[in-house]
Amino acid sequence: METLQQGIFSGKFGLRHKSILASIFIISGIVAILSAYFISTQAKLVRTELYYRATSLTKNFAYNCEYSVLLEDIRSLELLTAGIMKEEGIAFVRIQTSEGRVLVNQTTPLFFEEEDRIFDSPAKNTGEISLFEKNDILFAYLPVLKPSDESLYVVTDNSIKKESVSPIGMVIIGFSLEKTRELLVSTIKSTIIISLVIGLIVIAISLLVVRSFVQPLSELAKGTREISLGNLSYRVKIPRNDELGYLASSFNEMAGDLESNRREIEEYSLNLEQKVRKRTEELQIREEEYKKLYQQSRKAEEVYRSLIHSSADAIVIYDMKGKVSYISPAFTQIFGWTPEELKGIHIPFVPESEAGATMAIIKDLLEQGTPCHDFETKRLTKDGRLLDISISASRFNDYDGNPGGMLVILRDVSAVSY
Cα(200)–Cα(193) distance, rounded to whole angstroms? Predict the structure, then answer.
């Protein structure tokens, strides 16, 4: 048992480490999914743009070559080819007759011609543009039709068809995929770097948030161990004004009472034997009380944690001016606001239609201390949705017995209403 306590208080497999690991795994998974989605989308956009450019250039070039191919005007074809070769990313241009005789064949250092079979289009007689990739080259095939048969062209999204007319030639243009691949690699690298930076920033923020909740609990656990070991002078240092701060203050008061009582016991132990016997009986009674007080403190701490982390209803604590001093995690889940957004302000979630009734209840609660039970009303969420809410509220007192604020429980009954 002592070994287990030492492991818990030393931080091994504690709540802090589990929360940190869970945050890191969740954030890393989200960042990885978003990065993969962005990279996939970017790759599709780049490829779509390349195919659209290849289709457009090939269609225009084939149209401009119709008369020259029909007349086999090599000079005109060479001029047209030289013009399109100036376009970025063009690896080669080849023009041939319908019988396969090459009229013009120009290449760049980006392309090294292998065998003539690479130019055998799988759709050269179909009347449609054909695109396929091979050896980092995007090949575009398009038949050249007679100018007089222009009226027989049928234009679709990715093809040009000529019904019942044989082509007089074929235009083959090769587009280099090197720039496209370089762009994709650059995009992937940039995305990975940005994702890592964002992930690290979000993880750092998450660690700070986790620390702000877990550290006070660890301090309380450490204080409990010190008290159980007899160090009654130990005090928990949690400079906060919320429930954790209140719990720490109560713990320190308990430790102070225990220390004071022990000091009294030591003083009385110096008296006569009769007084010692008498005081011994009193000490036995007090010891039982101290044990009960200690157990009640531990139970109160457990109940507090359970209420904070598992309550399905939203819990809000206001000061006497109606400003927020605390909201539970369930409030954030239901209404959308975080504690940082509402700390020290009035919550802007009361519709105008409910303002009069709400103010009347608050006034009666603050001035008369009259509790409110199951008051059905409506409240707005952060994103503008209107919820049916059942409210129970009561006023609590501070250490001096004076009114200290309001504790309000809000239950979402929208599903019940509908």
Answer: 11
